Amino acid sequence: MNETTKSHSFIFIQTVLRPMYVCSLFQTDFSGNKVDDFQGVFHALSKLHLDSETLVVVTRGPGSYAGIRTAIAYAYGLLHGSALAQNQLKSVTSFDILRAGTNHLGPIYEKAWPRLQNGAAKGSKGYFQPTQHADISYTTWETVQKKEELLLVSAEKISDYSGEQSQYEDILCDAATYRSLAANHSSFSTSLEPLYINPVHIS
């Protein structure tokens, strides 16, 4: 655990992927809440303590359009209400969370469309990042499916290149995911620019 992790407490606001999750972390103390709606998010946040050593980390996309806007709007509210200084506000991407939860540094495809069909990747569109810290693009499954060591995030499942599957929720609601994020500050950004990638209305 590095010195920054030791001296700071962290509040993570994850409203971009489902299930949504709000948690706090200080040294070995962890408290997390899975929330079903945005009212639940604000209720969970109202119970958390902010001070000059707190870093607030929001997820800015890609993912749920409403979730992206809500997380960033809340962050700006804290900033403009003087509850936080500028240097206390950080962001991560959806892929940073997935990588922290899986320790996967290779290519990841996160299925985004069609949203209402089953978890099959065939014929879908989604978000793709070839390696950690690389640019994220919006593409089709057929374009990326033959990438070596590709991690597929689809519906409620995460499937790696060996065929092993895990539950999406197990990663998004696992204390180890957020401990990994806190320990690896290279994934933190100062940007609050929404990472939509794809058009809001997809055809």
Summarize the structure.
The protein has about 200 residues and is α/β, with parallel strands linked by helices.
Largest sheet: 6 strands, mixed
| Structural class by helix and strand composition | alpha/beta
CATH topology of the largest domain: Nucleotidyltransferase, domain 5
Distance between the termini: 45 Å
Strand content: 25-35%
The helix/strand series, from N terminus to C terminus, equals HEEEHEHEHEEEHEEEHH
The Rg value, from CA coordinates, equals: 17 Å
Report the CATH C-level class of the largest domain.
Alpha Beta
Helix fraction, binned, reads 25-40%
Q: Tell me the number of strands.
A: 11
> So, the CATH homologous superfamily of the largest domain?
ATPase, nucleotide binding domain
Number of domains: 2
Unreliable parts: 1-5
CATH architecture of the largest domain: 2-Layer Sandwich
Number of helices, counting only DSSP H or I runs of 4 residues or more: 7
What's the pLDDT, averaged over the residues?
89
Across the major sheet, the strand order is 8-7-6-9-10-11
Envelope shape: globular
Oligomer: single chain
